[in-house]
Write a structure and sequence with these properties.
By secondary structure, this protein is an alpha+beta fold. It has twelve helices and 16 strands.
Length: 425
C-alpha cells in the first residue's frame, strides 16, 4: 500500500506509474474522498473543542450554583453532532481504504518502462542449451513412458491441471524439494518454516493478493479461508501487526508449500503437462530487511535462487521485468527461466521480487531502530527458490537419454538413494 501523503504530494508521478504498470486506479476519486475525510475530521475536532469548553463551563456553573440547563442541552447537541460526523467519517474512511487498496506499487527507477513481457530485458544467460544425437521427447512423453507422471488420473480425481507423481517421479519431486530446502538453510542462512496451506482474508490482503487477485484463488466460502497461491502469503504474515527489533534484521525464512491457483486468466495459454497447473510445489524465500539495504538483498536473493540451477547444471536466463509485466505489489522483479528442449522455449521457474514497504504497510510490519525514534516500515522481498513444476519440465527433458531413461543430476542422487537414472523399473 502506498502512503496517502505521498500520493497527495506526488499525484502525477503516481498516475504515470499506474499507467506504466498497465493498472487502473481512480486517484482523483481517492483524493476527493481523502479531502472530504479531512474536512470532516476538522469539523469534529472543532466541535470537540467547543464541547470541552462547554463541559468546563457547566462544571463552573454548578460550582457557582448557576442554572446550566441550557448549556447542558447545547453540549448534548454537540455530542450528537460529533457522533453523526464520526459515523460519516468512518464511512468515508472505508471508501478511502478501498480505493487505496487498489493502487499498485510504484516501479523502481531501475525498472524498464514497457507494456508487457515483450519489453522485459534479458540481463544474463548461463549454461549451454543441450544437444542430442537422437530426437528428444517432451516431459509428458517421458513421464508417461516411464510411468512416473499421470495427468490423466489426476484429471479423473481432481480435474485438469492437477498432476499425479508416481514411483521414481514422486521421489524425484521430493528430492528436488529437500535439496533446495537444504541448500537455502545450510548455505544461504535461511530458517525453515512449515506454514499452513490455508489463510484468512487479512493475510491475503497483507501481501496484496486481495482484492485484486480474488478470481485467481480458491476460496472456501463456508470458512472464509483461501488456499494459498504461494508460501509468500503465510510466511510474510507471520509478522503481521508486529514491531520488530532492528537487531533481528534481516530475517530470512524459507518454506515449502503446495500452491493453488485457479489461473482464471489462462484461457488460450499453453496448458499441456506442467506448463500451467492448478496445484504445484514450491520452495519460497522471504526476507524482512532494513530499507537501506533492500536492493542489495534483492540481488543476493536472485543469486540464492540461481545457485539451485547452477548446482543442477541446467541452463537458464534472467529477465528484468518491464513495468507492464510487474505484479501489482512488486517494485522490481527478476524472472528466472529454464529451457524446454521439446518446445524450444524458455519457461519461468522463479520470480524474485522487492516490494519495498508496500506489503509492510498493508500488513503493518514495522521495526524499531536501535537509535530510537518512531518505528519504520520494513522492506519485504520474496523469491521462488524454486517452483518445481516448470523446473521438472526442464530437468526431465534436459537429462533424458537415448534409451528413454532420465539421468539423475549428481546433486540429487543422495536424495534418491544413490539412483543414477530413472528407468521406470
Amino acid at each position: 500500500m502506498l502512503d496517502l501523503k505521498f500520493i497527495r504530494e506526488n499525484t502525477e508521478r503516481v498516475k504515470q506509474a499506474i499507467r506504466a504498470k498497465n493498472e487502473h486506479a481512480d486517484i482523483d476519486a481517492l483524493l476527493d474522498a481523502d479531502r472530504r475525510r479531512r474536512e470532516l475530521i476538522f469539523q469534529v475536532e472543532e466541535l470537540k473543542k467547543q464541547r470541552n469548553a462547554n463541559s468546563a463551563l457547566v462544571a463552573q456553573y454548578k460550582r457557582e450554583k448557576k442554572d446550566a440547563a441550557q448549556l447542558i442541552e447545547q453540549t448534548r447537541q454537540l455530542s450528537a453532532q460529533i457522533k453523526e460526523l464520526d459515523q460519516q467519517t468512518a464511512a468515508i474512511q472505508r471508501e478511502v481504504d478501498t480505493l487505496l487498496s487498489r493502487i499498485p506499487n510504484l516501479p523502481h527507477s531501475s525498472v524498464p518502462i514497457g507494456r508487457d513481457e515483450t519489453d522485459n530485458v534479458e540481463t544474463e544467460r548461463r549454461g549451454n542449451l543441450p544437444e542430442f544425437d537422437f530426437k528428444p521427447k517432451d516431459h509428458l512423453e517421458l513421464g508417461e513412458a516411464l510411468d512416473i507422471l499421470d495427468f490423466k488420473r489426476g484429471g479423473k480425481i481432481s480435474g485438469s491441471g492437477f498432476p499425479v507423481y508416481k514411483g521414481q517421479g514422486a521421489r524425484l519431486e521430493r528430492a528436488l524439494l529437500n535439496f533446495m530446502l537444504d541448500m537455502h538453510i545450510e548455505q544461504h542462512g535461511y530458517t525453515e518454516i512449515y506454514p499452513p496451506f490455508v489463510v484468512n482474508p487479512a493475510s491475503m490482503y497483507g501481501t496484496g493478493q486481495l482484492p485484486k487477485m480474488a478470481d485467481d484463488m480458491y476460496h472456501m466460502e463456508k470458512d472464509d479461508l483461501y488456499l494459498i497461491p504461494t508460501a509468500e502469503v503465510p510466511v510474510t504474515n507471520l509478522h503481521r501487526d508486529e514491531v520488530l527489533d532492528e537487531a533481528s534484521l534481516p530475517i530470512k525464512y524459507v518454506a515449502f508449500s503446495a500452491c493453488f491457483r485457479r489461473e482464471a486468466g489462462s484461457y488460450g495459454k499453453d496448458t499441456r503437462g506442467f506448463q500451467r497447473v492448478h496445484q504445484f510445489n514450491k520452495v519460497e524465500m522471504v526476507n524482512f530487511v532494513h530499507p537501506d539495504v533492500s536492493y542489495e538483498a534483492h540481488e543476493t536473493m536472485l543469486r540464492e535462487a540461481t545457485d539451485i540451477l547452477d548446482a543442477l547444471k541446467l541452463p537458464y536466463r534472467i529477465l528484468l521485468l518491464a513495468s507492464g509485466d510487474l505484479s501489482f505489489a512488486a517494485a522490481k522483479c527478476y524472472d528466472i527461466e529454464t529451457w524446454s528442449v521439446a518446445d524450444e522455449k524458455w519457461l519461468e521457474a522463479s520470480s524474485v521480487s522487492n516490494f519495498e514497504d508496500f506489503q509492510a504497510r498493508r500488513a503493518r510490519i514495522r521495526f524499531k531502530e536501535a537509535s530510537g525514534g518512531k518505528p519504520r516500515w520494513v522492506h519485504t522481498l520474496n523469491g521462488s527458490g524454486l517452483a518445481t513444476s516448470r523446473l521438472m519440465v526442464s530437468l526431465l527433458e534436459h537429462y533424458q537419454q537415448a534409451d528413454g531413461s532420465i539421468r539423475v543430476p549428481d546433486v540429487l542422487r543422495p536424495y534418491m538413494g544413490g539412483l543414477e537414472a530413472i528407468t521406470g523399473r
